[in-house]
Amino acid sequence: MHMEASPPLLWVTGAGSGMGRAIALAAAERGYKVALSGRRSDSLKDVARDISDRGGTGLVVTMDTSDQESVARAHSTIENEWGTVTHVALSAGLNSVQRYWHNQSMHDFSSVVQTNLIGATLVVDAVLPSMRQIGLGTIVFISSVAGWRYAKEAGVAYSASKTALSSLTKTLNDELNGDGIRACHLCPGVVDTDFLSLRPSVPGKEERATMLTPDDIAMAVQFVLDAPKNICLNELVITPVSAA
After folding, report:
1. What's the CA gap between 49 and 89, in Å, rounded?
2. pLDDT by residue (tens digit) across 156-185?
3. What is residue 236's three-state secondary structure?
4. Among the listed residues 123, 106, 229, the one whose alpha carbon sits nearest the alpha carbon of residue 168
5. Span 50-72, average pLDDT
6. Contact, 68 vs 118, CB < 8 A?
7. CB atoms within 10 A of CB 72
8. What is the bridge-based pairing of β-strands 57-62 and 87-90?
9. What per-residue confidence (pLDDT) applies to 224?
């Protein structure tokens, strides 16, 4: 059975800032109902107001992506309020300043993997049963160029967790394309967001000017979400144009 929700329902994690916020706003402008998840309710409410001001519909669902019970409660809230989630953009991410073998702690390593990999898996596991029931679903993992090819500066935990998202994408498409479900491993280059404050050496204004913007990523995500149902965009790599 293939059913198209009207309007489509997008669940965005990490929706309170940066790429997640931009993805949510772009989708709302395209007519999607957008469920907004993240840890900071104030930030999510700000995004929901921005969506409302633009004539869209947003639902604030505070959630700790790394916690299974929190994810389950959030998903239940969305389904009770709006019905089946048809689209997911997994933008919640974490890294550590101390990220290399010589200075990382296993506590930080576990936290990064728990958010970037386990957290993404928990959300997908929550939405899949209903998606399979209606025969429809699009899942976008906001990964990284570090998940596509080795990037030393990304660090051990971040690189490992983002690389693993490629495998999640492949297994989903291999097992569930026949059920109308498709996944994309979206790999942006460096994006100018507050996330850069977690770098051991924080980039300055001049360097940031050469980076991708959250709106660039939102445009790419929307391209994946809006793709015809017979198309599966397995992997999409986005980098800024190199300076001459």
Report:
1. 20
2. 999 999 999 999 999 999 999 999 999 999
3. strand
4. 123
5. 96
6. no
7. 15
8. unpaired
9. 98
Collapsing DSSP to helix, strand or coil, 148 comes out as coil
Task: Output phi, psi for 179, to 5 deg.
Answer: -95, 10
Pick from 73, 156, 71, 165: nearest CA to 116: 165
Longest dimension (CA), the chain: 53
How far is 112 from 94, CA to CA, in rounded Å? 5
Structure tokens at 87: 């689209």
Binned at pLDDT 50, 70 and 90, residue 100 comes out as very high
Q: Are 46 and 15 contacting, i.e. CB atoms less than 8 angstroms apart?
A: no
Section 61-81 average pLDDT: 96
Any residues with CB less than 8 A from the CB of 94 and at least 6 apart, and which? Answer: 111, 112, 115, 116
What's the pTM?
A: 0.91
Q: What is the three-class DSSP state of 125? A: helix
Residue 203 has pLDDT above 70, yes or no: no
